Amino acid sequence: xxxxxxxxxxxxxxxxxxxxxxxxxxxxxxxxxxxxxxxxxxxxxxxxxxxxxxxxxxxxxxxxxxxxxxxxxxxxxxxxxxxxxxxxxxxxxxxxxxxxxxxxxxxxxxxxxxxxxxxxxxxxxxxxxxxxxxxxxxxxxxxxxxxxxxxxxxxxxxxxxxxxxxxxxxxxxxxxxxxxxxxxxxxxxxxxxxxxxxxxxxxxxxxxxxxxxxxxxxxxxxxxxxxxxxxxxxxxxxxxxxxxxxxxxxxxxxxxxxxxxxxxxxxxxxxxxxxxxxxxxxxxxxxxxxxxxxxxxxxxxxxxxxxxxxxxxxxxxxxxxxxxxxxxxxxxxxxxxxxxxxxxxxxxxxxxxxxxxxxxxxxxxxxxxxxxxxxxxxxxxxxxxxxxxxxxxxxxxxxxxxxxxxxxxxxxxxxxxxxxxxxxxxxxxxxxxxxxxxxxxxxxxxxxxxxxxxxxxxxxxxxxxxxxxxxxxxxxxxxxxxxxxxxxxxxxxxxxxxxxxxxxxxxxxxxxxxxxxxxxxxxxxxxxxxxxxxxxxxxxxxxxxxxxxxxxxxxxxxxxxxxxxxxxxxxxxxxxxxxxxxxxxxxxxxxxxxxxxxxxxxx
Amino acid sequence: xxxxxxxxxxxxxxxxxxxxxxxxxxxxxxxxxxxxxxxxxxxxxxxxxxxxxxxxxxxxxxxxxxxxxxxxxxxxxxxxxxxxxxxxxxxxxxxxxxxxxxxxxxxxxxxxxxxxxxxxxxxxxxxxxxxxxxxxxxxxxxxxxxxxxxxxxxxxxxxxxxxxxxxxxxxxxxxxxxxxxxxxxxxxxxxxxxxxxxxxxxxxxxxxxxxxxxxxxxxxxxxxxxxxxxxxxxxxxxxxxxxxxxxxxxxxxxxxxxxxxxxxxxxxxxxxxxxxxxxxxxxxxxxxxxxxxxxxxxxxxxxxxxxxxxxxxxxxxxxxxxxxxxxxxxxxxxxxxxxxxxxxxxxxxxxxxxxxxxxxxxxxxxxxxxxxxxxxxxxxxxxxxxxxxxxxxxxxxxxxxxxxxxxxxxxxxxxxxxxxxxxxxxxxxxxxxxxxxxxxxxxxxxxxxxxxxxxxxxxxxxxxxxxxxxxxxxxxxxxxxxxxxxxxxxxxxxxxxxxxxxxxxxxxxxxxxxxxxxxxxxxxxxxxxxxxxxxxxxxxxxxxxxxxxxxxxxxxxxxxxxxxxxxxxxxxxxxxxxxxxxxxxxxxxxxxxxxxxxxxxxx
Lengths: 603, 603
Description:
homodimer; Aldehyde Ferredoxin Oxidoreductase Protein, subunit A, domain 2; Aldehyde Ferredoxin Oxidoreductase Protein, subunit A, domain 3; 3 domains; six-stranded mixed β-sheet; 25 helices; 17 strands
């Protein structure tokens, strides 16, 4: 085949059966793979009547036409499902080795439906599917499961959940290759609800590349581009993503103590520079990645991958904690228990503020690094207060009477960039189809780093165009699938050429970004069908009304409303944020109009 | 000194005297050099009462803090004056070797005032200024003058005018290093009006770099980046700028026959591919440039630099001519006579349409390649119809009763990108401070090439943000001065780091783009003071009302009005396009508010 394997594997856990059917190539062309293909499949499979934790929800694992080809960073894959945390369409995306190996089994997508009667794990060796009893693995942590099931980076790869997923924590991640995560929005809970502990893949089918000479030349060119960019050749390999800590803090956009401030006095102590100096063992990288931003770090207690910038922020600045060793340990625990670090950290921060204000009776306080590890464990096992924490910050804060103290959008905890110091980032969060997320078109490059050009981070008027462009671009890149860091050195339209070389289908300039826009609009339609409305495109009230009292963002709140109006208009949506029939027709989504109309006009 | 030489040379041609005074370092820091410094100096020197061709107008030659340092493409320089073609502030910018040599004479700026009694040329050797009688050079063409005055690329560089400048053609260029041009807006006529034939520079002062190690590292990094980018390492060296011909034609944005169509059936015959195949002798490059986009081409009659894309378009598609040899010869003639090729070609195209429609009695017709050379000569010598052509298309078309047939903005002929197929480009032209120009933030990258990301070229809503960002960025780059092609591989904010290394002044992220915005606003104030108003921010009526009848832009006119409204708002200007006091204060331009208010509220 050309890039795609052309086959979908569907597993029914109710019956422990499976079937294979062809990938609709027209659909593949339009939605590419990864996130795009996942969203398109979910549209047909899971409607608004389905509870995310019921057997009727599905897990859709997808790779993309570039996955496993050996193109730089072509290791990533996606899981798509209805989120138990937000109720929106959810795509989570991970690196490592599993995605590449999954591609080599011969499938483009794996759809998991139903619920197994007892704990089960699945083994896929090329076309062969075997169901195994996972009773002995149930309750086991991620590192141990991964080892037991025979993880061997380039040969046999393990994806699994930890106790958090088993216990249906709404912020549970699916882990792969031991420490990589499909983290956000609670896909681990969906997997837990299906009594599915692990999926192990082994494959020997090599993805075919149609124009091999052209592809080879592109590998060469991409290598040059990544070796030339100071970010992909120096900053990321040398300091990892935590290199952002001091930068974001300096501009006054580092949310601190549950977004009460936008600068953290302890930033230096938890920075990439400090990590490198004190805890770094060595770098590592995902399959086929020449960047190598992965850190292997070590404390007295743990050694392993991470922490990433957002993790370090979530357990650090957001919790008022400047103890980097404690953060590294919390990160490691999250990996082992299968928890989303951003949501875990920010939910603890929320509990800290609830406790400090007397709304919640606990000994949690900002700065209490000594409580982090216990808190994370309790969350995974739903012990004591952990039972509330496992639900994420919005359900926690709502239970204790103060939903406004959850720093989330649509229930998903926002990451390490404060909308008051980066106005575009606020619009991004408010309109992100999976809730408060920075991977749906991060404005960091434009608003802070000046990549490729700097726009005023406090600018409101005219900001939406940039947000939309980056949202569409992200959706396309998430569908190839490649790592967004590659995009720091390689332009979007270059990926289109790579895609053409791999698939033999001439993707012209503009086809990629149009596919991204199509995917974004389909995700929007999904959320509209689920009942999301204009009023859900918002931010926590704190960000809209409480301005920081000092630092570079002093006096600024998020000016979301005018940006949002402009955003809808620029998207070609109506004033309620509903894509117009004209826009949908232009994107080849006309067939969805009627159904959405029916849903959104319900009384 | 640090980057800047710290000295301005002022020459008074009335008295053939000169003086030197210090550069205001605060001004330099705010306006950098090149175009920015030129605009700032012009503001003080030339008010609205001054006729551009009177002795009261000045020529301000500026280099920038990077010029001559050896940083990649640090060869460029600027001339600033009040344009005799448009009446606006004018900055024209050129590569080659002269700018670097001028820097080595020890000056940052050369201001030429007054009018010499008889033809004169100036020699500047380091600090020494000599006035020479140019009576024997008057009437002489550019190539011969350049030779006579001892052009020697790296040692002694000649800048001069040809017959067109002497004869006060409003589209006359100033030429340097034989075939490089300060082309647009008629600076050659200003030089001619001063009886100034040439300026020869020789220098031995090496610009100082404050942080040499850092600078050296940046040279290394920039080399890597330019060698990695497919555009700067392959497309431009291999095909030159004419590589754009087929691309722009394919998307239906190649103005054809005086903008009557947007695709040219003869595009292939005048493309970069054809040039390379049939007429290319070799590549060449400006000083310190690793890209080397310069073509040396040869026909039976001429051999020399060029033609560039816009030139090839102007004498080609715009005139309905597909005879590449004739175009190369017309280009060579323009260089030798000292004419702006874009304005020359588009003015001839205008005359062709006037003639075809019977408004003008001449044998000019679209496609008449045989008349090109004669036409260009006549223009330079103001012979017959050439006397009208020398005035540019707007004055020509007005004289013959049809000003609407001039394809110009504020009187400056637009280049090779049709606003009906690139909506943002139309907004760019309409708002450009020197009239219809593509070097004030070309939208080609965003609207056609997808660099760094593709935006819909027909999109109207939300387009202004991108135009503004690129306008500000261009103003900054024009002030360093480096070549905009470098920016295809090197991000703006990287230039800020280079500027910091060279000057020792810490330019933080955002300072560069802010300087660009400051410069743009000052230029706008200048034009407001000259009497330009909202109604001048427009396009030829043809582009607003006549849609192409076929091709990819079929049915599209320029939707300028909504883009313009949005543009003013996003710029922080009032609804009449006047920068608000708040915006000016933010940019450190508060001191100009009162004067502009006074001027713009005159009855």
